[in-house]
Structures are given as C-alpha cells and as structure tokens.
Amino acid sequence: MDFAEAAADTVETEARHRRAAEDGDAASMSVLGAVLLRRGDLDGAEPYLRAATAAGDRAAANNLGVLLHQRGYPDEAAGWWRVAAVAGSAAAAHALGRHHRERGDEPAAEYWLRQSAEQGHALGAYALADLMEHRGDAGSERWLRVAAEQGHREAAYRLARALERRADGDGGAEAAEETAEQWYRQAAARGHRRAALHLGVILEKRGEVKEAGRWYLTAAKEGESRAACALGFLLRDAGDEESAAVWWLRAAQDGDGNAANALGALHAARGEYQTAERWYRTATDAGDVNGAYNLGLLSAAQGRTAQAEQWYRRAAYAGHREAANALAILLLQAGDPHGAEPWFSKAAEAGSVDAAFNLGILHAGRGDDRTALGWYERAAAAGHTEAALQVGMARLRDGDEQEAERHLRCAAGGGSAEAAFRLATVLDARQSPPEPHTLGQPQTPKTECEEWYGRAAEQGHRRAQVRVGMLAAARGDVAEAARWYREAAEAGSRNGAFNLGLLLARDGNEREAALWWSRAARAGHGRAALRLALLAARRGELAEGRRWCARAVELGPAEVAERAARLSEALHQELTA
Fold this sequence. Notes:
Layout: H1 3-22, H2 26-39, H3 42-54, H4 58-71, H5 74-86, H6 90-102, H7 106-118, H8 122-135, H9 140-149, H10 153-169, H11 174-189, H12 193-205, H13 209-221, H14 225-237, H15 241-253, H16 257-269, H17 273-285, H18 289-301, H19 305-317, H20 321-333, H21 337-349, H22 353-365, H23 369-381, H24 385-398, H25 401-413, H26 417-430, H27 448-458, H28 462-474, H29 478-490, H30 494-506, H31 510-522, H32 526-538, H33 542-555, H34 558-576
Helix pairs in contact: 1-2, 2-3, 2-4, 3-4, 4-5, 5-6, 6-7, 6-8, 7-8, 8-9, 9-10, 10-11, 11-12, 12-13, 13-14, 14-15, 15-16, 16-17, 16-18, 17-18, 18-19, 19-20, 20-21, 21-22, 22-23, 23-24, 24-25, 25-26, 26-27, 27-28, 28-29, 29-30, 30-31, 31-32, 32-33, 32-34, 33-34
C-alpha cells in the first residue's frame, strides 16, 4: 500500500468511526476523540471523549485527562485519570503518578506509578524507577529493567549505567559489564546518543576500534560532543589528523574542553603556538582545567616563566595535580625550595607519582634520607622507575639484598639502565668466577646477569658495556668483547679504553693499543700509564717510559705505583749507565 492509499484508508476509518459515534457508539467516540486529540484538535476531541467517558470507557477517561492537562486544568485532569486508573488503565495510573510527583506528594506518586508498572506499563515502570532512584530506594534497578525489556531506551541507558557503576565498584565484574554493554546496545540502536557514546567507550577499551568508531560517529552526528571528541582521537591514532581536527572543531564549538585541548596540542606540535594558545584558552573558558595546565606548558616551553607560573597556579588551585607538580618544579628552579614543597606535597597527596619522587629528591638534598626513602617507596609502589631504582640502592646500602633485587628488577624492567646494571652486579656477585676460556672449547651460554648487563649496555651504560666485554672475553667471544670495549671507550670510559688496548695488543696491534691506553691514562687510568711505560721501555724510549712511570705512580693503585716506581728506577739506571 502506497502513501496515498494509506491516507485514503485513514480518512475512511475516521469517517466510519464518526458515523458510529454520531449513532451513540461509545467505543467509536473514544477512538475518534483519541484521533482528534493526537491531531491537536482539542475542541473537536473533547465532546467525544466526555461522552465516551460518561459511557464508562476508561481509555476515553485517560485521554480526557490528557486533554484537560494540555488545556491547563491539571487538577480536573487528575480527577479523570483517577477514574480511569481505578478502572484499570495503566496509562492513567502513570499519568496520575506523574501528577502527584509534580505536586510533591511522593507516597501517592509511588502508589499510582507502582499500579501502572505492575500492569506492565513501560512508562510507569520507568517513572517508578526514577522516583525510587531519586529517593535512594533499593529496587529501582528492577523497574528500569522492566521498562528496558519493553523497549524504553532511556531506561535501557540508565540500567546500563547502573550496571557499569556496580562493575566498577566490584573491581570490574565481567558479568555486569557485559550486561551493561547489552543494554547500551539496545538504547543506542533506538537512537540514544549517550548510549552510543558509552558503547563506543566499552568497545574502544576492548580494542574493537572499528566498531567503536561507528558508534562514536552515530552519537557525534546526533550532536554528542564527547563522541565527536573521542572519534577525533581514534582518527588521530589512525594517522588521519585532518579528519580528527574536523571532529575536534565540531566538539570544541559545542563547548567540549577536551576537544579544544586536543586542537591546541595539534597546533602546538605544528609550531602554530598562537593558534594553540587560543584553543587552550577556549578549553580553560569551557571549564577544562587541563587548558590552564597546557597554557602553562606552552608558556614554559617559550621561556615565559612568569606566565607559566600564573597558569600552573590557576590549574593547581583547581586541583590539577600535574600542574601542582610543574609549579613546584618551577619554584625549585627559581631557588624557592620552601615554596615548592607544599605544591609537591599537594600533588603527591592527589596521586602524582612524579611529585612523590620529586619530594624524595627534595628531602635527599637536605640529607633527610629517611623521609626521602618514604617518598621514593610511595612513588615506586605506583610504578615510578627512577624511584624504584633509588629504593633498590637504599636497600643495598642497608644490606637487604632481597628487597633491593625486587626493586631493581622493577626499575630495570621499566627501562632504567642504571637499575639493570646494579641488578646485574647483585646477580654477578652470587656466581662463582668464570673458568678461563680454553681455545677450541665451545662458548658458554650467557647468564642472567650478563643479560641484564647487556640491556644496560644497549642503553649506553659505559660500566655495563665494559662488564659485558669482560664477560664476553671470559666466554671466548673476543669479537663481542672488542665491540663493547670500543663502545665504552668511544663514550669516554677509561676502563673500556684500557681493556680494548689489551685485546688489540694481544692481537699484535700495539700501535692502536697505545692510542687507547694513552686516552685511558690521560683520563686517570694508572694501569694504562704503566702499560705505556712498559711499551716505551721495550722500544728503547727510556725518557718516555719514565714519564709514563711517573704518571702511573701518581694515579695508582698501590700495586701499580710500586711496579711503576721499580720500572722508573731501572730506566733511570739505564739512562745514567
């Protein structure tokens, strides 16, 4: 049936009811009154509804109440709703319950709404749930579910929200979370834009980015600015900054501070600082405290310290913990540690891990190691890598090797080269010295401590590089040893330069060995100076040999100084013979 046929059928049906109503048929009067009421023809509907109501039609009584309410006669409307509700009309009971709630009579409202809800009326069940939730009564969720099961989209959304809150309260109960998703889906499919947003969040968190993007898009097109902002972030992560900017702009213009901040960051990354500042100010004006913090970061990066402090303070006073930490750092750099400490404390108490670590540094600088350790432990417990390193080093000093190892493992796993090196030294001290490698024997596998030395070495830790070289040499891997000695030596390690010289000399390359020993000796390595003295003596360069002997005596250690002194005396005797 096409539109014209449907319209003709409607007209014919109305005409049939009108004829029956004129003949006194109460049911037709009720239907005709309802049709005219929906059309907005209150004058035409009222006589039919009154006549049908007088004949005992409860649907007409309910609709008469609706008509009178629209005319501005709520008390008379309530009277007819009561008549219909008593006669068993669930819709009238719902309307009467809403009327009593608007009047502040909650007991009466609950009575009639419950009558409606228990008859399976979706609007009644939702209104009852809303009333119970408002009063904090248990059981509201049950009625939200009744309404949602009948297709009420707002009930489905609020039920999902309630289940999600419960999941969060239970530490993320999976069953409740899955059920929440089901109801979000139902509400979103019926056009509920906030449900679409929340469904997108759940899916994105689960890694289902493509479907999350579809729901964000659905909500964003309906004017949900938070969904437009979230869609922007998905597009940015996918490498489409231009499309991301379009959605962030749309959200920012609707007052979303997070989107304005995102636009600010986008322009700042492009070097467009004036535009970035404008968007950060827009975010701040929208009530997003991150805007003030970002303005502080932008000002600090441009060397505008006074403005940075001003924006950090604004954000910090609003409770932004990282702004409080940044403000404290600024004050510390300006030579005001006493002004910095309260802001570090405020940030740390609000959960800033960096601030807790910075408090540790502050107290350590004052010699208050005990208080410093307490803050380091707090930061370490929250996953701060450098704090875990400091705790590990403190435990090593205290002789608590087990606790030291635990913290050093955390720090090393977090990427700290120093922690990896110190963990390796702890493990190294527990194992027996390696047997000297014999030519022709297979190379021994790497130990765990060597793996940690290697990790530190790869990050440029010079002492670790030297130790990896030593372990490789002991294992018989001369090429690997030479590589690491050279890495360390070129980075300025005197031990690396000395050991590289030993390997080169062993291979007969004394000339290059002498170059590395010279570098090591100039950097204060006594053994390198002694090697150079011996090399000069073999070549007959006696004066040069005595000069390096003198350097070796000066640098030590004692054993080296003693040997250098004896060699110097022998060279002197040859020179004067």
